[in-house]
Design goal:
The protein is of the alpha/beta class. 45% of the residues lie in helices and 19% in strands. Helix 1 runs antiparallel to helix 3, helix 3 packs antiparallel against helix 10 and helix 4 runs parallel beside helix 9.
């Protein structure tokens, strides 16, 4: 009953059931009256043909139509997925030197840029999207906006730098979200927000993830603000990069992905965790995030199908009645 806005209309179903029972009783009474004829030859002259069972179809259709209309009038509700229009998403991308690794073709950073731009295009238009890039420090490249072209242009011009400050990336995104909420105002609660972080390596600044500016501390701060951080661990365990040294040469350094810390950040903040070792995997991760972020589930009116079907059945009842009996029952 909790799924209806006006459940008392369901009581009208009892009226349809009562009419159905009355119809059956009337038919049986007519049958008993027929049996009173003792002269079968006279009965055949009075009623030369036995009534077809098809004569009951109009009544059945009409009663079913009344039942469906009663359900429709009771105001049934159902979950509906609708696009979000008042929400903020901060895309946080790791631009540390490890993103030069070519274990994901053509490189981690190039694949990340392509997948991120597709994610930007797939978000529903009403969402405010911002962009943060982080390496040793973090900066807001695009404040939350519905201007997708601005965000895509910034993604195309990402520049790599040394070190990885995961916590700074999250804290910077939270600050941008707070700034937008203060500008929008006019509501009891700030608009819902989500951080999507893509990273491939272990935090190096500061050393501890539980440091006041570390990734785990930032994840807890996001949880306190009600902002889930969904993380994408991008790359492979065998990735390497060539780092220049003071002698003018280069040193090959392994840069394996750090799944455990990124997974913990997602869990601490209430977000989702994804792994991607190829561009295709990255597209799938962003596609799943788009489904989570771009739409919301709300309870909405679901009476229309019931009313339409009930109306069609009652119309069919009139049509079949006229066709079978040349009169309305």
């Amino acid at each position: 009953m909790s799924g209806f806005t006006s459940p008392w209309w369901l009581a009208f179903i009892a009226v349809a059931v009562a009419l159905g029972i009355a119809y059956v009783l009337v038919q049986r009474r007519r049958h008993r009256h027929v049996l009173r004829f003792t002269n079968m030859e006279l009965l055949e002259k009075v009623a030369p043909t036995r009534p077809s069972r098809a004569r009951h179809i109009p009544t059945v259709l009409a009663l079913l139509g009344v039942i469906l209309l009663a359900i429709g009038l009771a105001g049934p509700t159902a979950d509906k997925r609708i696009p979000r229009n008042r929400a903020t998403v901060m895309l946080v991308i790791d631009v540390s030197l490890s993103m030069k690794a070519t274990d994901v073709k053509p490189s981690r950073i190039a694949a990340a840029q392509e997948a991120a731009k597709q994610f930007v295009d797939s978000l529903t238009p009403g969402i405010n999207l911002g962009l943060v890039a982080f390496a040793g420090t973090a900066s807001v490249l695009v404040s939350p906006t519905t201007n997708r072209a601005e965000t895509k242009a910034a993604i195309d011009h990402l520049q790599l730098s040394e070190r990885t400050a995961t916590g700074e990336g999250i804290f910077t995104a939270l600050q941008a979200i707070d700034t937008l909420a203060g500008v929008i105002g006019g509501a009891e609660e700030p608009p819902p927000a989500r951080i999507v972080m893509e990273s491939d390596g272990k935090q190096t600044v500061p050393e501890s993830l539980d440091d006041p500016r570390g990734g785990f501390t930032a994840a807890r701060a996001a949880k306190a603000k009600g902002v889930p951080v969904s993380t994408i661990s991008f790359g492979t365990s065998w990735g390497t990069v060539d780092i220049p040294n003071p002698d003018g040469g280069s040193e090959r350094v392994p840069v394996p992905v750090d799944d455990p810390s990124l997974k913990e950040i997602a869990q601490l903040s209430g977000g989702s965790f994804f792994t991607a070792s190829s561009l295709d995997d990255l597209h799938k991760a962003y596609s799943s995030l788009q489904e989570q972020i771009g739409f919301q589930t709300v309870r909405g009116d679901a009476s229309r199908p019931w009313v339409i079907l009930g109306t069609l059945l009652i119309t069919a009842a009139f049509a079949t009645s006229l066709a079978l009996r040349q009169r309305i029952p």
